[in-house]
Amino acid sequence: MDDKIVAIYTIVSDFLMAIHHYEDPQRQMSDAEVMTTAIVAALFFAGNYESARSLLAEPRYFPAMLSKSRFNRRLHRVKAKFLSLFSLLGEHWKDLNSDSLYAIDTFPVAACDNYRIKRCHLYQGEAYRGFIASKKRYFYGLKIHLVVTKDGQPVEFFLTPGADSDVECLDLFDFDLPPGSEVYADRIYTNYVLEDVLSEADILFKPLRKKSLTRQWEPWERYWISLHRKMIETTGSLIERILPKSIHAVTSMGFELKVSLFILAMSFGHVFKVAT
Fold it and tell me: Which of these, 20, 30, 117, 137, has the minimum number of CB atoms within 10 Å of its CB?
């Protein structure tokens, strides 16, 4: 764990220096240390900031650790930097993805158990009640919309309310991918207009087809798409492994920040795999 913590801090510190991030020189705890603590919490302690703070407050790590309230305030001030760091790592994964094969899918994140929906303070309204078709059950919370490489490395994501339609959210993706890329998706993502637009940008969007649709793939193409769909399923299992059964948060912004940190932690997990 020590080597990974040092690696996280080094990457975060170099990233902040590269973007010329300014902070008050009188601060006893730097923003790099704050960000490292949050990433360590997501990667090793199921998002528990207190456990990460207790570990990293040791003299060999960050002896000037902030109090709980001050740490949370500083954490929310740098939340935009986490997304920038995720984008930087995403560009790195794109460069390593020489085959330019990607997959897209959605994963539910429950904010509370179904029987506690009426008492949920983070979110309210039917907009957050989603349905998991594979498990044939409802959940109350958010959806993670994710693009990954063939090796499961995340390159793009965003969050929406649980009831939002997957296919309607396709327009929210940037699809900032290299020319010649192929993006595989489930049959629910059929969108002819988007396919034509991406084709003009030299990006092939290949969702599985329902048998009733007019546009159909050749048999070998259907097999190829089904084969590469497995990489997003593997990523889904990795996300479920990282995400705890319940995410503790006081506000919706805090909940969304923690979910984003879990995705960033998954990206760091791939950094350690590549390093070994």
Answer: 20
